[in-house]
Amino acid sequence: MVPGVLLVTACGGSNEAQQPAARDAERSVRIIAQPVRLTHEASKVEAVGTARAERAATIFPETSGLVTSVNFVSGQYVKKGTVLAQLDNVQQRLAVAKAEIALKDAQQLLERYERIDVPGAVSTSQIDAAKTAVEAAKVDLDVSKELLDDRAVRAPFSGYVGFTDIDPGARVTQSTEITRIDDRDVLFVDFSLPEQLFGQIEAGSILHVDPFASVNAKVEAEVTVVGSRINVEERSFTVRAAIDNSDDVLRPGMSFRVSFDVAGDAYPEVPEASIVWGGDGPYLWAVEDGKAKRMPVTIITRKEGRVLVRADLQEGDLIIAEGVQKVRDGTPVMNIVESRKEISRGVPSGAVSAQGALE
């Protein structure tokens, strides 16, 4: 109960002039009103996505040959450049040694020509030819080293290697798959959304992604790319989100349930206590010109004591939050919240405050 408030009169005013206002105040029903605010309905969007490693590759040898060693086991983590398999390389090593000798001979010949100090003993063309021979020998050595290096099958980046069917003694070609490698510290989840949602999700948005394989896992992902085109056949676009998988719990190929909220249409938000149910459905009481006005509503959604409704209400309109059972259409009402504010500020000259409170 709110304590009664004494009748306040203006100094020098007429009691007779204030009596009609006092009678109006006494007839008014005390209520608590609240202003309406417009709130966007939060719609949950769900999709199914598939994970892929940030980097993935199928590894093939650069050349054909006999496998002499396999230097990994399935599931092993390897560093970039690690030799995964070695092919026989005897001929290539001999070719490198031969190229090194040829380069050394060419360099020695050029040095001898350059040391000769007798005019005309060595022509300029001979010196030029010797220089050319040195450069050619360097190229031959580089080619030989490259061919030797091609006999080693290396990891293109750091990651986890998969299964292999290759054993030492197997003969392979450039089309023989040695293994696969995944860098799965970060996983990408690709999923499709209907074109109606284009523009409602952007890079940097945070999503909830739950792997179907584990109902208890709660994972967040950050959108990295939003497709720039709409698939004309499916009327959809693709979104890619990144998951931090540094703990190596998730795997490429997993399916995920992707969910996020998007802002829907804006609706008036009112207290749940303001909704009254009648024979023709729900309604509430709006306050217009100090009187109650019945207004039918359609309930959109409920959340934590608040309700979004479809009704002829604008931002800031007053609706009755408490006292809905005491009014009828056209009943004069007094918002006791505003009355209390007036009392706390001091009642202006000639004003009359309400006495009593909600019962």
From TrEMBL:
Ranges for domain CzcB-like barrel-sandwich hybrid: 56-183
Pfam name, any one: BSH_CzcB
Protein keywords: Coiled coil
Residue intervals of the CusB-like beta-barrel domain: 189-261
UniProt GO cellular component terms: efflux pump complex
This protein's record includes keyword Coiled coil: yes
Domain YknX-like C-terminal permuted SH3-like: 269-333
Keyword hit for Manganese: no
Gene Ontology MF annotations: efflux transmembrane transporter activity
Recorded family membership: Belongs to the membrane fusion protein (MFP) (TC 8.A.1) family.
Protein name per Swiss-Prot or TrEMBL: Uncharacterized protein
Organism: Hyphomonas beringensis
Taxon lineage: Bacteria, Pseudomonadati, Pseudomonadota, Alphaproteobacteria, Hyphomonadales
